[in-house]
């Protein structure tokens, strides 16, 4: 197997990041993580992940939310092709139109995954996004 | 004061009716009485007239008796007839005749031969026949008083002017004499007869005396109240009725009716008769000669106008009394009713004030009657109302404050619930992630028992997750955070498809088939996010409770009332009696078919709330053992009764 795919997990929930790390590493991915949204772009530039799992709402009021982060990523030509999966507790049916009404701005977002998510679902989405 | 007016009007009506009846009765009564009275009076008057007539003759009679007793007369009668005229005797006779106002005074011997007359030209020597007075006196050897008829020859013999007088007063060559005949005796031997009398034809004194005696010669409106007339046969020969030219109206005849009745039958006649120019209550009595033959009539008339005037005056007096009585009664009644009705009036005003909202309105009535009781009851009632209202206000204030508190509590509760749920979501998400990571063998193989245990934990966590999701929806809904923002939505593309996409995997797991019969172009007017929750909840239920391997059908169509949508699944269905309770908060279907699949009891309630926010509704139908269908309707945009934003 070639080099492991790098996945950046950006979520403020420590437990979730831990369990995601356990799952994803067992599935053969290399995991980077951050609890703070404002660090995401910096880390992306640093490690160049193959995929980003991005939460929407982060604790604290200072940092940008997940949507803003993905917009920033989209605006950086070097970064705009890295697929982003939104992983959020926000109920998608109510608040998130983009997945089904595609918009240029959200192009890096390949899928919206509502928490909680089952491992096989998540892995399926990740695999799908990486293959594109 | 309306009541008083009505009362008085009623009283007045009764009075007017009574007055009419009383007046009518009075008029009838007065009429009858007056006429009766008039008749009675005429009878009495006639009696008086007859008495006067008699009295007149009685004077003549007494004068004659005195003369008959005189020795000088007896001597004269016993003296031989031939010889010189006894001039002193003749003077004496004439002076008696004149003194008593008589027309004739005649002395006859027992052979009816005239010995001497007391009236110029003092004819004598003739023989008198057919004089009922003389005949009766001779026959009965007694005094006779009465009225007799005298023929033309006799009149001419009796004295100068008498025949002419008769012709002038009625045009008949006969005369009617009222007088007396007295026999003269000498030691029981009849020597002769003295006859003296008044010729009634054209005489005025006689009838005028009657009139004056009976009617006192009074007048009424320039007309004499009463008149008297003497008829010879049916012809007026002496009267005080005056014709148009001021002359005494003699010479005319009585009516046929009167003649037949009085002359013919010898009866009296009573009635009304026109005399010259006025109506008179009249009475005719027969005048008989000493033999009982009817030879004339005595008439008395009394002016009817006078009775009419009396009658009218009486009627007016009685009516006046009735009217003033009525007026007085009305005045008294009005005072009484005012007194009686005043409390009613005050009660009415107080009631008006009360009904106008012034609960302090009271009425002051101290009378001990029903009205007093009524007023008392009114005051008690008003006081109770006042108390009741005060209590109500107090209760309402309490209720309002409780409501406010409750609303605040509810909002706080919901906010807290939302917060807690949200805070629970993340740990739960990581727990589920970890659990499944272990359960699905990503971190190493598990034996069956371990897997079974973890499956059960996973089920609980799923339920836990559902519950949190629903509570979050509910808390947002009840906080009013989810107001219905309606837009036109393509039902399939904007609402159903995204939800179906999210549920694909679960359907696959349960090997369920989707029958999507939604028309591609159907547009609904609704809040997109809320309608998505409805579809999410209904489809999740269909997947959760539907038969594994069965189908789920989506339908929608436009009808006159709006858009009718449905979600149905094959499976055990829902018992008929449970259907109505489905949409209540925390209502759960408990049946063997659903055992092991616990719902939160909130999903359908949330659906109902959302549809009601849109002015629509939701209901369920089921064929037990086969299928369950949830139908819901959204009204057309124009028909939406705004329930949105009104939700508290």
Overview of this protein structure:
The complex is a heterodimer of chains A (132) and B (648). Chain A is of the alpha/beta class. Chain A has one domain (6-131): Rossmann fold, CATH 3.40.50.2300. Chain A contains 5 helices and 5 strands; from the N terminus they run βαβαβαβαβα. Chain A has helices at 14-26, 40-47, 66-75, 92-95, 119-131, and strands spanning 6-10, 30-34, 51-54, 84-88, 109-114. In chain A, strands 2-1-3-4-5 form a 5-stranded parallel sheet, with helices on both faces. Chain B has 648 residues and is α+β, with helices and mostly antiparallel strands. Chain B has 3 domains: 2-46 and 315-345; 47-306, PAS domain (Beta-Lactamase), CATH 3.30.450.20; 482-639, Heat Shock Protein 90 (2-Layer Sandwich), CATH 3.30.565.10. Chain B contains 14 helices and 19 strands. In chain B, the strands form 5 sheets. A 5-stranded antiparallel sheet of chain B has the order 2-1-5-4-3, sandwiched between helices. A 5-stranded antiparallel sheet of chain B has the order 9-8-12-11-10. Chain B has a 5-stranded mixed sheet with strand order 14-16-17-19-18, with helices on one face. In chain B, a hairpin with a 2-residue loop joins β6 and β7 (223-224). Residues 591-595 and 641-648 of chain B have low confidence and may be disordered.
Helical coverage of chain A, percent range? 25-40%
Count of helix runs of chain B: 14
Main CATH class of chain A: Alpha Beta
Q: Can you count the helices of chain A?
A: 5
Calculate Rg of chain A over CA atoms.
14 Å
Return the string of H and E elements of chain A. Answer: EHEHEHEHEH
CATH topology of chain A: Rossmann fold
The structural domain count of chain A equals 1
Q: Residue ranges of chain A: pLDDT <50 for 5 or more in a row?
A: 93-103
